[in-house]
Amino acid sequence: MKTTENTVLVTGGSSGIGLAIAKAFLASNNQVIICGRDPEKLAQANQIHPELHTVTCDITQSDEVNDLFGKIHDQFGGLNLLVNNAGILNRCEFVSDEDAFAKGEQEININLLGTLRVTKAALPLLLNEAESALVNISSIVALVPASNMGIYSATKAALHSFSRSLRHQLHNTPVRVFEVLPPFVDTEPVKHIKDKGKMAPDKVAEFLIKGLQTNQSEIIIGPAKALYIAQRLSPTQAERILQRRIAAASKA
Ligand SMILES: NC(=O)c1ccc[n+]([C@@H]2O[C@H](COP(=O)([O-])OP(=O)(O)OC[C@H]3O[C@@H](n4cnc5c(N)ncnc54)[C@H](OP(=O)(O)O)[C@@H]3O)[C@@H](O)[C@H]2O)c1
Description:
By secondary structure, the chain is of the alpha/beta class. 50% of the residues lie in helices and 14% in strands. The chain has 8 helices and 7 strands, in the order E-H-E-H-E-H-E-H-E-H-E-H-E-H-H. Strands 3-2-1-4-5-6-7 form a 7-stranded parallel beta sheet, with helices on both faces. Helix 3 packs parallel to helix 4, helix 4 runs parallel beside helix 5 and helix 7 packs antiparallel against helix 8. Bound molecules: NADP nicotinamide-adenine-dinucleotide phosphate. The site of NADP nicotinamide-adenine-dinucleotide phosphate has 32 residues, from helix 1, strand 2 and helix 4.
């Protein structure tokens, strides 16, 4: 997939990994649109990177998503790269947390249903292009679930499964489906995890660009690779490794 001269939408592009991805695409000569719920965060991103196009949009709201794609169609005439990045992580122990159900429902609504909503709305535009791509940002916990983020892990596992089936459905079309599986990344939602191996968001963006250029459909990043290999050899052992890391990080 080419990584220049595209029209790119990064959902959740106002902070963290999404903003790093948006910056990387700007630097490689692409038109970049970002969306998010908080207009102030979008304005801050725009102040630092005035070339960014920003649209306020909550991906859990169908009317807002339809407006977003209406604007993209009218202002840019099309879209050939969608990065489904918007997502949340709620701290939650399912057994002991009174609010576990509500927290999980919010994660499912944003991480899974929101991503499906955006994907469905984007497909007519992506299918209309000679070369286009859809990138889902999942996580290594899609493959090795983390006990203290059970529903979050389940949303990412569902996104992993959906990415694989959509890749088959789109096989004979111009739309390529990519999935990015990062390790822990140094952003706001995981600042409570004191893991020294957290990756910088800019590094994730770098891996994504390289993965697109080399048509790597599943982009497994840095330390996530070791866990990926471990879970192929022994899923139980991989879960133990992750649990030990989480336990160590919560003590640090
Ligand atoms: N950090 C990690 O360790 C890690 C590891 C693997 C995968 N990931 C994934 O990477 C993605 C980005 O996470 P991050 O760590 O960079 O977190 P972040 O800095 O909190 O970024 C999340 C972005 O999503 C937006 N967002 C949240 N809910 C939204 C909604 N309903 N509609 C539209 N935008 C929404 C946020 O903006 P508003 O709040 O203004 O809406 C923000 O721009 C997520 O999908 C996350 O699951 C993160």
